[in-house]
């Protein structure tokens, strides 16, 4: 059993933080008493015990207030430590240590808990374990052998919470539940109940689900059988199709051979027709070419080719010369361009250099003006005329630098003077301040000593005043002491305690006999109650049977209308589930139809969207083609525009040919008119009457000749443009055909398809709406039936329960047969009441005798206490009389010292006043000096900075000027001007050369254009000769093809192909029929496989088996949970009732032996069952403390006095400690006499002594009492269990001290 031995405290609340302040207390057995005034630190000891055992701080306290305040200790960090040495439940020695630290940071304090250390003795060696707070808590609870709730609320209960037994109901229930340790068992019961309900619900779900899983399993098996049948039919169909295809294959091979021959015949026919068409076209082209030619060459082909080659050589020579001239022209042009770029670059560079020269002149002028300005500012001579040379500038810079150095030196000297004056002022201020501070410190110290001396004088005078009249009081005490001793002797002689104790022993023996008779009657009553219970159970079963009949009737009345309207009769659970299954099949079938319709609708919508998209694409394509056609043609009449363009091209071609020959004609005409002696008109051969008319004709021909090259060039450009446009229009011919097809065929067909699809979509929507209406009706009926299914299942369960109740009624009836009930409950109860009355009478007489014994003992004890008090007061007065002369001398000395200190303080204050005035004047003078120094420094620095800024600007301009000169920009500018003149002369020569080459090229081009006409005539003759040869070849090839086609038997091939086609068609028809059947089989197989893949059919048999296993195991587990729940609930109830009976017995005995009032016989704790808890939950208890007088029990909360409240709470704690602290005999009482009158204090002391006496045989019993009432301690000290006690007091540093004292020193202690 556990027991505390020793505890040390350091740095907690008022206990000091130094090692010398550590206080150690050794706990006595069976009683340890701590005495001390308020605020001395008594309660701190219980707080430390509670903290080291549970790590809980006192109520309303945080960690930083539990530790000694760092501000009071004048430390930044304060470490607190509590050490406890105790014996655990096994009697082994254990030491535990908890440490804390509190740190002062500014105005806030931070608290931190350090690791705890537990030390045990194992095999003669110390073993230490450092661990966290929670682990230490668990270890302490295990070692002490009690729960944390008992430690907190019973053993080490704080004074502020000591009245918790009379707190409000919810808090009281929580405390008792924690003490009884019932919370975890209640949670376990609640968890068992919830798990049991959940598992029961799971069993019902499994039963419902099993029915559907069974249906799914049967349906899955049916689908698998159908699937096997369809797969065998599909295999037979595939074999039939393969046999048909083996017959079709050779026929199709023969058809392929015939088709190849027919294709060859068709190709020959097409080639012959193509050759006929080509021959006709070639003949037409030859005729057209002969018409275009002026005459046909009559020579041989070789002569024609030789003539054409000679002409080509001449033209190539002229073109080569033209190309050479063109290259020379390009070179001349490039040279001109190069020279122009070079000229442009030189002009740009010349402008840039001129700008830099202008900027250089501006910089020189600016520099000179700045030099003049600064020289005038500094009053320097010789700088009035500009420009300045280099020597003047060097002299200027030297003078300015010298002037700056002089200004800086003057400024530094002025600052040094100011700093010396400021240092002298500061020295004077420091001397006066030190003198003033010394006087003020002297005044403060002497005033403090003066106040302390006055307080000492006041205390001495007070003690002297108290000692007045002590001699008279001493004589009175002598008389009172004689009287008290005489009364004590008389009372001791007249007491009859021993005879009363013998009477109590006899009455207790009588009470034991009556208790034995009472227990015998209880056994008889239990036997009678057992049969009474059987009858009561039978009545309850009949009532339960009536309730279940009523429930079944209500369910039938609630759902009768709906079910009869759906099924035509009121079904049982199986019939309703079958009907729901059939309805579910109908819903699934409707859903499949609806799914198929929605699928068709989606397909139609997609088809419509696809067609609409195609229409938009076609319309867009049509618009793009029409736009393209319009952009090229300029109108929509493509054929007329193309014909018109062909005519324009032909006209332009003729005009180009005419202009090409006009140059040679005009040149020949002009030469005839100018060279002949008698010129005549080259056309009409008439002569010119005058030279002027001849000159006019010549001039006219020359002007036309000059215009011919430009007209020829324009005509060629126009011809190329029209030919290009014709090519573009010819390329648009397929687009024109596509536009026609889009307008006349594609778009109308697509629009008709959209209309058909819209009609199909509308029809599908109507069908879907009908199916959805049907589905909604079926689902509504199914939901109605499902809503009724739960109640129908409940009704089936009620009917099963009803049969079980009827069986149990029959069993109870069989139990009551043959039972002899000769004695009734009333008879046995009457005998019990008579025995109980005798038992109560004996108990009352015992209580009366005990009270008489206690009264006599208390009277004797009171008289003894009175004698002790008189003796102590007499001793105190004698001691005080001896100290009177010493106090009078001390009073005179203190008066003299106070007068001397007053004079010294007055003299020091008179010296301080003039020093303060001098100090203020010196500080003001120092401030004025600092301001003048700063002002002067700012003025001088501003002047120096102004000069520096101006010099800096001058230097910047000089650097720019020097840079321009060093880079040689002036010479570079003259060089670029010379280069520009050279470039201009070269450019003029290049332009003259380019003009000469242009003239030569124009002459060569005229000659080439004249040769073009002859070249065209020769080309046409060559083309005609080539086409005649090609025409002969085409005629020969056509003849050969006709011969080859005649050799093939075309008619026989066509007849054979017709017969084979009919045969293949018959085979394919049979194959299509077989393929259709095969497709149907495959679709059904796919549908069956899809159904088997659906969640309800996939692994249906395995799911059914798993669910059956789950249901059976859950039912078994639920039965076990029910057994566990009932067993645990009964155990908790039995434990609770047993403990409450034991506690109340102890409370009654303690109250009767302690309380001296007549208004309350005893108090007890009532645990009422909560009636508001439902039947399926366990019972809970609501606790209250009541006071009993006669047959009336009233709640103490709100009705009792403060003293009764304290006494009741104390007694309940004593009873709880007696009951629950089997392994821990420790109990701490903090100020147990609070609010108690003297009579109850004395009875409490007597009761505690009796408790100690009764438990003195228990080695580990320890009672710790903390009080400031020394009379109460003196009462306890009269017993043989108290020899020493601890006195708690404050030392000179106001830190708590623990002093061990003997009981005989109680009266001699001076407060």
Low-confidence stretches: none
**Largest sheet features:** 7 strands, antiparallel
Overall spatial form: flat
Oligomeric state of the chains present here: single chain
Classify the beta-strand content into a percent band: 5-15%
Number of helical elements: 23
Q: Pairing-aware structural class of the strands and helices?
A: alpha+beta
The end-to-end span amounts to 40 Å
Per DSSP E runs of 2 or more residues, the count of β-strands stands at: 15
- What percent of residues adopt helix (DSSP H or I)? over 70%
What's the average pLDDT?
77
CA radius of gyration is: 68 Å
Characteristic terms for this protein:
1311 residues, alpha+beta, 5-stranded mixed β-sheet, 23 helices, 15 strands
Structure characterization notes:
This protein is an alpha+beta fold and 1311 residues long. The protein has 23 helices and 15 strands. The strands form 3 sheets. Strands 1, 2, 4, 5, 6, 7 and 8 form a 7-stranded antiparallel sheet that branches. A 5-stranded mixed sheet has the order 12-13-3-14-15, sandwiched between helices. A 3-stranded antiparallel sheet has the order 9-10-11. Strand 12, helix 22 and strand 13 form a beta-alpha-beta unit. The model has no long low-confidence stretch (mean pLDDT 77).
